[in-house]
Amino acid sequence: MQAQYASNDPDYLSCKKNECQKYVDGECVVSTCGATLSFHLINIRTGIKFVFFAGGFETPCILAVSDSASFANPQKPLYGHLSSIDSTGTSMRITWVSGDDKPQEVQYGDGQSQTSQVTTFTQHDMCSSILKSPASDFGWHDPGYIHSAVMTGLNPSSNFTYRYGSDSAGWSGRITFRTPPAGGSDELKFIAFGDMGKAPRDPSLEHFIQWSFYMDIYLAYHAIYELIRNIFRDYVSSGSVYITPDSGGECGVPYETYFPMPTAEKDKPWYSIEQGSVHFTVISTEHDWTEKSEQYNWMNNDMAAVDRSRTPWLIFIGHRPMHSSNHGLLLYPNVDNNFVQAVEPLLLANEVDLALFGHVHYYERTCAVYKGDCKAMPKKDENGIDTCDNSNYTAPVHAVIGMAGFTLDKFPSDVNSWSLVRITEFGYVRVRATQKELKLEYVNSSTRKVEDTIRIIKA
Prior knowledge:
Shape: globular
Keywords: Glycoprotein, Hydrolase, Secreted, Signal, Zinc
Helix content: 10-25%
Number of domains: 2
Number of strands: 29
Cofactor: Zn(2+); Fe cation
Largest sheet: 8 strands, mixed
CATH class of the largest domain: Alpha Beta
Low-confidence stretches: 208-229
CATH architecture of the largest domain: 4-Layer Sandwich
Radius of gyration: 25 Å
Number of helices: 6
Mean pLDDT: 88
Family: Belongs to the metallophosphoesterase superfamily. Purple acid phosphatase family.
Pfam families: fn3_PAP, Metallophos, Metallophos_C, Pur_ac_phosph_N
Subcellular location: Secreted
Oligomer: single chain
């Protein structure tokens, strides 16, 4: 539920918009003060009512209720987002949401098209416990129908246009995208960020927002290659490593339906992909990573099999970090030492160059670190930029990049020597990789200025 105070209109308290509601003998005896408020709404395929109430959220007193306002086209295909399905750069998956359960299609290139596969999920697919979870109870919102189709026959590093939908439900606009470079080619450019969060685009407050409605908003503004987060997966008796209520009972079901990644199967959201000169190993910190577990064996085998003559850079990606100056809460620490002890040796043994994490809401970049010790410090190049020479490999550089929009965390006054750069501002990182250099830059999203740069090179 979104709500705004009537006083958000500066003319309300001064009663500039005065309207008489009752006259007696030609004189106004009851007048009201009016306010005009604007709400930013997204198409959630159901009717919207506006309620005027007093008493706040805890003791609301309803004064008036509007008629239901409907969206012009509840069936409209929306929120299309792309994801790679392999390392060739010749196929791309497009996923979108519609109120229509009939197959639609994506039209692309020069007259090519693919029919969508349609799926959805229900309230009964949500996790719960003795007490009903929000996602299975008051927080439920119908997700509509999720359409997915794979565009094939593409060329890597090339521009294409597409649209998705149907004649009956409507069509998206025409959108241009560029396919990624094939694995083993030279240059790759990408941006990365974590913990985008969610906030209204108007002055609204939110109260008991529906979990699946959150996913609608997430889809409306998110175009990403995803990895699973605690807020999407964790819940009691769900099989998650962490027994927290963070997902509200979603247990990864909406996430994996909305964001199909190139994983082996459902609820095993770890995968790898190669683009340009980079091999990405993406894991789930919310699923079992202990030694000899399925995921542990997979990540070890995946990284050990990387052909460094083809993809010289190995980037490891997970949600919960291995190193963070902000320790979190006593019972809910930001860094799980068991995770670090189990998985960090794999990064060193397989010579991971860069490890990217989220979960903590700021930007923090380390030296080449292992077990809390700096194994090598970067040196300044001729332009004053921190540079690590991985021709003589020592350990991976870690970066926490959870500064994409959720409430920012603070750094303590005392930090460890492995923490080289700390920025508490919203932003993102952009990365450029060639066969010889991996360059990471932190960009402040408010100023658009680069506030940190590190180069990792190989002879």
